[in-house]
Amino acid sequence: MLSRRQVLAAAAGVLAGRGLARAADDRRVVEDWRKAPVGQQGIPPGWRAYETPGGHPRYDFTIVEDGGRRALRMRSESEHSTIAHELTVDLAAAPVLTWWWKIVSFPAGADLRERATSDATGHLFVIWPRFPEMLRSRLIGYVWEPKAPADAVFTSKKTGTVTYVVLRSGREGVGAWVQERRDVAADYQRIYGAVPPNPPALALSIDTNDTRARAESLFGPIAFQAR
Q1: For residue 149, what is the domain's CATH number?
Q2: Which of 113, 118, 44 minimizes the C-alpha distance to 83?
Q3: Which of 14, 161, 175, 220 could form a disulfide linkage to 100, CB 3.0–4.6 angstroms apart?
Q4: Does residue 188 lie within any of the structural domains?
Q5: pLDDT tens for each residue of 129-181
């Protein structure tokens, strides 16, 4: 016969297992970079080119292992490369976007707040297309900025469809893996004053065509999850 302590321990184990299963069920993985072998270059499987006016994209992207983490390494020199991934996500159930990234370098002289220097190292967009797309779409871009202060929110100087949210500022943490968590539904409500529809796409971008500089970043796993 089991002792009272053994029964309580078994019950705790069952509850913990249910909690882990629930957490796993609440997580909607967008990308873990395991569909392609390490070393594959260019646009990765499951993604597509997302053209930007005057971008001249090179898609200098490579699947790598870095610090024990599978990732996409993004490099750019005097060009603008963006790739998009379709989403199937219910923001009411899983509004929190999580990802790992590692900033290696910023474009020298970049400052997204100025049109002439509107470049950025690797960054992430959540996309809500609206017709006509070039005029009415809504994109929230999450960036690590060398100059703009953390928590700054501002509209792109090049297109009114993009609003940037600065998550981190300056060089502290550059060269190390960092995890982000953003409540996309709350950010949309704050920026646009409305409950967001479910976004059909997400994009990764790296942009150096204005500063004519170089930049490099890595992105690890990307997922949506409950609060």
Answers
A1: 2.60.120
A2: 44
A3: 220
A4: yes
A5: 999 888 899 999 999 999 999 999 999 999 999 999 999 999 999 999 999 99
